[in-house]
User: What shape does this take?
Amino acid sequence: MRITSGSLKGRRIPFDNRKFNDADVTPSKIKEAVFSMLGEDLAGKRFLDLFAGSGQVGLEALSRGAALVVLSDRDAKRARFIGELVRQWDVAERALVLHMPAAQCLRFLEHREISFDIVFLDPPYVKEGDDTSLYRDTLAALAKHRLLAEVATVIIQHYAKNVLPEAAGGLALVKTRKYGTSALSVYGTRHG
Assistant: This one.
């Protein structure tokens, strides 16, 4: 897995799934789709990768110039791995790596009064059934904790057969794109 664009382009992320409790890693095709939607240049943007896993999505945002990237994962080994990579790549001044469950992370960020232009959510998901409460609840929590900028985009990676809500937490579903068994649903802030 490599960084595909920006100042860190070509750098390899040496994440070995077997050493990290078999974390689901965002496939390259889906990561490319995410950044195709967001664009090449994220200068000045604040980016939250709430279920960071290998860190590759947040690291890609850093490479594309995001002003601040918060990468959080509840797994201590994964968070430590991401933190070490951020230091090695000399981007620590624009990155905040946290080892917290999602709900605790959102409360922590609210107390720091940080809001985000872009949020990427790729929680561990079961590739069956149709329970979308985790997504709805997380969208609502982002709004409740005032973590979204006035104009914000939230991208959720999920099982393709899940049908996510049309609206939640002040956000409206803009589009859903399917990629095999996975999908990306994009939400935007609603006005008026």
About this structure: Residues 76-88 form the longest helix (13 residues).
